[in-house]
Specification:
about 100 residues, mainly alpha, 2 helices, elongated
């Protein structure tokens, strides 16, 4: 009989994905705060912003922030659930290490 591990166990998966969603919700708010700061600084330096510049700033700052946060959160999710332990390194015997 094999034991369910990492995200294969529904209880562990529910807990991990709940924590991931909660983290991403807080990071979406932090990203919105970064957008407000970026818009304020641009307005302070340049004066009134054209509509297209404001839209591009909002989308660029928020999406970049969320992409970085999402990828890092997925890395933590993978490590925290033990999912990384199941990775097979097929090149470990072929690459020489100089210790």
């Amino acid at each position: 009989m094999t034991r369910k591990e990492a995200l294969d166990d529904p209880q562990i998966a529910a807990t991990a994905w709940g924590r991931f969603r909660r983290l991403m919700g807080w990071m979406a708010l932090a990203g919105a705060l970064c957008v407000v700061v970026a818009l304020f600084l641009l307005y302070w330096w340049t004066g009134t912003l054209p509509l297209h510049m404001a839209i591009a700033t909002i989308l660029g700052v928020w999406l970049t922030f969320m992409l970085g946060t999402g990828l890092m959160a997925l890395a933590f999710l993978s490590h925290g659930t033990g999912h990384d332990e199941h990775v097979i390194d097929r090149l470990k015997d072929e690459v020489p290490f100089d210790d």
